[in-house]
Amino acid sequence: MQIMGLPIVIVGGGLGGLAAAIRLATQGRRVIVCEKNERLGGKLNLHQAAGYTFDTGPSLLTMPWVVRDLFAFAQRRMEDYLCLEQIEPTCRYFWPDGTRFDAWQRLPQLVQEIERISPVDVPHFFQFMAHTARIYDAVAGPFLLRPFDGLRELITPSMVRHAFRIDALRSVDAAVRSFFRSPHLRQLFNRYATYNGSSPYVSPATFNLISYIELAEGGWYVHGGMYQLAVALGRLAAELGVEVRTETPVSEVIVEKGYARGVRLAHGGVLPAAAVVINADPQYAYTHLIPGGQREATRLARFEPSYSGVVLFLGVEGDFPALAHHTIFFSADYPSEFRAIVQDRRPALDPTIYIAATCRSDPTHAPPGHMNLFVLVNAPADDGRIDWEAVMPAYRDHIIAKLEVMGLSGLRQAIRYESYWTPRDLAQRYNAAFGAIYGLSSNSPFAAFARSPLRARRVKQLYFVGGGTHPGGGIPLVLLSGKAVTSRILADQGA
Ligand SMILES: Cc1cc2nc3c(=O)[nH]c(=O)nc-3n(C[C@H](O)[C@H](O)[C@H](O)COP(=O)(O)OP(=O)(O)OC[C@H]3O[C@@H](n4cnc5c(N)ncnc54)[C@H](O)[C@@H]3O)c2cc1C
């Protein structure tokens, strides 16, 4: 393989940055990844303490073929690097009225569960799946699977032909209501909008394709913990000759005569580059790294960030049989929960609580007889109005009290290890503007077009990859973003 000339420097070793690094290196480019933190992986990360292991970000992988495709592109077999598992049930749900629902991946069992809580909705479920499959069919090709730099590129004859199919003129909730009668199933299917940090009550019904993707292609876990995905990509990148520098924050992109020429390192020194790829959040990058970026930072600030999260890491003694690998404890009033988080930008009084107990699949993640609970509650983007340090002790008590009422009795007494992250921690750890988990929100039909394009608008040889650019946040999409930006860079280099 021929390694050519100046390197391409990637600012950030998140999954988007790693995917781009792997693809560029496979194409013979010299690549350097500069990551400010001590480990690769970005928001997909790891916390270990007192004998407990916690994945700190994603806990569910959808579209697993995207990972396989990345390894195949590098002429490797994914199975030689990591093992993907389907967890049954994908998720267990509890409602405040005592209803419980196991969302099985196996269709006959899933249908039985639907029949158990709402027999009338069985045919509606199949109609909904057919509807969302048509959305996926219309959207995947033009929007998810190829590079895309703006609205103009979407106006193709095929998109115009399929425009009616994408269901963008009503909300996720309006579409879900038109299919399901059961309030429980409505809440359950509305929840998929949260997979990209949006509210089901305002985000376009196009995002119902997320439920189709999970139901048709499964929800997956990486054996050993989700962080093993970052480990595997880091290993593949190293094998391909990518130079990874951790604990290496970049302080500036060097721009000369409208071209990105390299980066300045915060701890001193300069890396000249043939191109610079920003995996860090675009709004942060335009504010802090790119000279003259204020105008673009101001443009991005006009759009709503996706919401953030409050995370409790709990190591507990004993077993809580109610908990599956993934468990959700729903709120009694979903609309008012989203009104609080998205419109009023305050923590919800009655939050929906998600718990990942990876010890169910990986017993080594907790000492024998103990469990590791990653507890996630959606929280408003951090616009500075909330003093999280002051709020957290009471909010933590509130979350634990709700869990005790909804089936985890004795939880408070069982805690042996505990720490938490607020939206501000997420912001600081990853330089994520507002601590947003998924970049900009998708709370309008046009939100997708607000994101920074793969190619920077005013600086040549400067690109973006990851959740802040096309096609959006979440593991599979940021990996696809690595594919999209690579093809842009290679095209620009005349390859
Ligand atoms: C709590 C939580 C739960 C989630 N759950 C899921 C889930 O279940 N499924 C799913 O698919 N997705 C989930 N996500 C979203 C998913 O983690 C992200 O969409 C994805 O990991 C983002 O990858 P990225 O490459 O775009 O950016 P990031 O992961 O943000 O990586 C950017 C990297 O850039 C680095 N950086 C920033 N500034 C600099 C600088 N100046 N110099 C050097 N490096 C810098 C950061 O440290 C970071 O490592 C979740 C995220 C969180 C936080």
TrEMBL record:
Stretches assigned to the Amine oxidase domain: 15-490
Keywords per UniProt: Carotenoid biosynthesis, Oxidoreductase
SUPFAM superfamilies given in the database record: FAD/NAD(P)-binding domain
Cofactor(s), names only, from the UniProt record: FAD
Record keyword Ribosomal protein present: no
Pathway: Carotenoid biosynthesis; staphyloxanthin biosynthesis; staphyloxanthin from farnesyl diphosphate: step 3/5
Key word Protease present: no
Single Gene Ontology BP annotation: carotenoid biosynthetic process
Molecular function GO labels: oxidoreductase activity
Catalyzed chemical reaction(s): all-trans-4,4'-diaponeurosporene + 2 AH2 + 2 O2 = 4,4'-diaponeurosporenal + 2 A + 3 H2O
Family classification: Belongs to the carotenoid/retinoid oxidoreductase family. CrtP subfamily.
PANTHER family: 4,4'-DIAPONEUROSPORENE OXYGENASE, PHYTOENE DESATURASE
Protein name per the record: 4,4'-diaponeurosporene oxygenase
